[in-house]
Amino acid sequence: MRPFRSTPALLAAFCAAALVSGAALAPAAGSGQQEQQKKMMTVSGIAIQPDGSPAVGLPVEVKAPNKKLVDAGGPGGQAPPPELLLQQSSQGAQQPMISLGKSVTDEQGKFAVKFEVAQDKPSIQLEIGDKRTTAWLVKPLENKHKDMDLGRLELRSKV
Questions:
Q1: What is the pLDDT of residues 54-106, one digit of tens each?
Q2: Which residues contact 152 (CB under 8 A, 6 or more apart)?
Q3: pTM of this prediction?
């Protein structure tokens, strides 16, 4: 058997093979950064009391239904019955709505709720105040996956 001899050509070939195999295993530049950055959106507006004054210090929350779409396969290509379209997820019995983000109105009644885009939720809901103790509003919104400025929102009197 011949003893192994190190030559510059052999060393260069080994380094080239290591570089090629390392480049093949490395992820494409930027792909990991895109996965780590979550798409955010903001719902903003101005909450106005029933008397026309700004609604100061009220809680604001954006929620989404805790349900998922289920393909029930209606007969003859028709849409399935509505009660089969939405099924509660495993936590649905405890929480019919999940919170996406929270905020509080400022001295001028302005608010901005920033949250991660809910790709699988076709609708979201804005809730301002608490109807038992303060002026309030519950407003369903279509989830367009982009920022929404709702402008002036007139609140209802407490119940």
A1: 999 999 999 998 876 554 455 555 555 554 444 444 444 567 899 999 999 99
A2: 45, 46, 48
A3: 0.63
Residues 22, 15: contact at Cβ < 8 Å? no
Q: Is the dihedral of CA 3, 6, 10, 14 positive or negative?
A: positive
128, 58 contact by CB (below 8 A): yes
3-state secondary structure 111-158: EEEEEECCCCCCEEEEEEECCCCCCEEEEEEECCCCCEEEEEEECECC
- DSSP annotation of 76 reads G
pLDDT attached to residue 156:
96
